[in-house]
Design goal:
about 350 residues, alpha+beta, 5-stranded mixed sheet, 13 helices, about 45% helix, transmembrane helix, hydrolase, metal-binding, metalloprotease, transmembrane
Length: about 350
Amino acid sequence: MLISESSEDDESSTEMMEVDDELQEAAAALCIGVGSFSDLPEIPGFAHFMEHMVFMGSRKFPQENFWDAFLSKCGGESNAWTDCERTCFYFVCPKGAFNKAIDIFAQFFISPLFNKNSVDKEIMAVDNECRMISSNDNERTRSIISHELVERGHPMAKFMAGNLKSLKEDPERLQVNVYEKLHAFYKRLYSAHYMTLVVHSVDPLDVMEANVVKTFSKVPNKYGSNIHYFCRIKNMAAVAVVGKVVVVVVVVVVVVVVLVAAIVIILLIHRFNIILYLPSEIPKPMFIKPPFQERSLNKLVRVIPMGDIHKMEIIWALPPLMEHYRARTIEYLSILLGHEGKGSILSVLRRK
């Protein structure tokens, strides 16, 4: 999605933008349809850890803190977050620094370094975030509800934040190489066909489009090119007429050809980092059962807070509403429930 603030019909507006061009802000956000639900079973919190490691340099800009230093110098900022089903990265900076910034930003998804020296440091950063969350009453309540009420076996019931134990201590005990898993996770899931990019700038749309295509077209698309390899052996009954010797020769030749072809394909995949998908392996949306079953509903959960607070929360389990996002269903219900004027739920409760 490209969002431009410029208007060819408004000359005064254009002149104003030309004057303040260097002061205008521009922004970009890239969202990947891969989140904590995709954590490796043996490494809880891995998607969150991956989010931290992505910003640790690229082949084109290998310095670990280059991105932060660049944004700090130009007055910009960036951040990222990991949700259950997506991970989003974003930044804001002055318009004058945007072309350079978006190039640096794109390289994180084109050729991230995953510097081995950064692994322990970022594990500690994730661990610190987890400790902060554990002392936050809202996050503690969500965690308790997920652990106590969500159906066992559902990805929402698992530990997703990540900490020192899940990212370092347990993998070391199980002899799991976290660094190698980073590269494998990136190669498998950080693909252009899972990504959505939004760019906001004062530039005309055609200029923005050209810049985005030039910069982000290099992001690998690992969906594959629908390349299929088939090997068929003709009806053996017909071959039997010629004789058993011919059958043996044909089978041997076919086996040799298949083995040679397999070796060549493996070498090409290893050399050019190609990922091929057979028809049955093409990624499809995963539909899972709802996290809250009927036996988990109509429950009262009491949580002892860390702070001196008294609060009641009412939680509804709703079906997926993504396909209705244009109707803003949740926002509509939120306004009705949160309204404080005459005739509102709050006014009725206060009268009682």
